[in-house]
Write a structure and sequence with these properties.
This protein has 254 residues and is an alpha+beta fold. The protein contains nine helices and ten strands. It folds into two domains: 9-51; 59-205, no CATH class. Helix content is 28%, strand content 17%. The strands form four sheets. Strands 1-3-2 form a three-stranded antiparallel β-sheet. It has a three-stranded mixed β-sheet with strand order 4-5-6. A two-stranded antiparallel sheet has the order 7-8. A hairpin with a 5-residue loop joins strand 9 (228-234) and strand 10. The longest helix is centred in the middle third of the chain and has 12 residues, at 150-161. It starts with 15 loop residues before the first strand and ends in an 8-residue tail after the last strand. The model has no long low-confidence stretch (mean pLDDT 88).
Length: 254
């Protein structure tokens, strides 16, 4: 069996469309070679090539009507603090590629979970040239799936809005809390909106990890005084120390 001709560098490391292959001069026979995987019609993937979700999704957004990476796929791209698959109620479809289309019909492709929605221009951001639902829109979509609990949504939102001025460990919010509040205030009649608004009341800026969020919520359910993140303590030398969780105004031993 003859060895297939090497692919052009631009096509050798990630998924590409047949249209792109033709633009690079690949003949029909090369597009059908056995070293190319066919995940869906019109798309080829070089064999034995690992790639990011963003690179894998890119060609799907370039074929036919413009589709946007969304739901669980967008959450992965935005690095949401998602529940671990083990011990969670996430569906098996969460591992597939999720795409949303503006209009009356959802995308229908092998390996794709299609959605349709009325997306505003502000609901879409570009990541390396790939259209992805924004952090706020993705969070709203996830709230409407019925697979995430109120606590799960607080964990995710805490991660998005996390910001604090800790010395040497300052954090900048991926999505400022005020921006998230404003976004939800503008929404009407969207699945998941009531649940996400309820979660928003429990969200706090300055939370660095999922265990911090879940512990704070546990304290809240236990009837203890409200615990807040990043409570500042002053040591004997007058230097500030930040407690992950604390009750503001309560002195140690008081």
């Amino acid at each position: 069996m003859a060895t297939a001709k090497p692919l052009p560098p631009a096509l050798s490391t990630a998924s590409f469309t047949i249209g792109e292959a033709r633009l690079h001069g690949l003949p029909p026979g090369r597009i059908k070679a056995q070293d190319l995987h066919v995940p869906s019609r019109g798309i080829r993937v070089p064999a034995n090539q690992g790639q990011s979700l963003l690179a894998r999704a890119r060609p799907y957004t370039q074929l036919g009507p413009p589709d946007v990476v969304s739901f669980y796929s967008a959450a992965q791209i935005h690095a949401f603090r998602m529940p671990l698959p083990s011990g969670s109620s996430l569906p098996p479809s969460a591992r597939l590629l999720h795409l949303t289309r503006n209009g009356s019909s959802a995308p229908r492709r092998k390996g794709v979970i299609g959605h349709r929605a009325a997306l505003d221009p502000g609901d879409i951001v570009q990541r390396a040239g790939v259209p992805v639902t924004s952090e706020a829109r993705t969070l709203l979509d996830l709230a409407g799936t019925g697979h995430l609990t109120l606590e799960d949504l607080v964990v995710i939102a805490d991660g998005l809005v996390c910001e604090h001025p800790r010395w040497q460990h300052a954090a900048t919010a991926q999505l400022p809390l005020a921006e998230l509040r404003g976004y939800l205030a503008r929404q009407r009649c969207v699945a998941g909106l009531p649940l996400l608004r309820k979660a928003l009341a429990l969200v706090r800026a300055g939370v660095d990890s999922e265990p911090e969020t879940r512990l704070r919520l546990l304290f809240g359910r236990s009837g203890l005084p409200p615990f807040e993140p990043d409570v500042v303590l002053i040591d004997a030398q007058g230097m500030p120390l930040w407690a992950d969780l604390g009750v503001p105004g309560v002195q140690a031993g008081g």
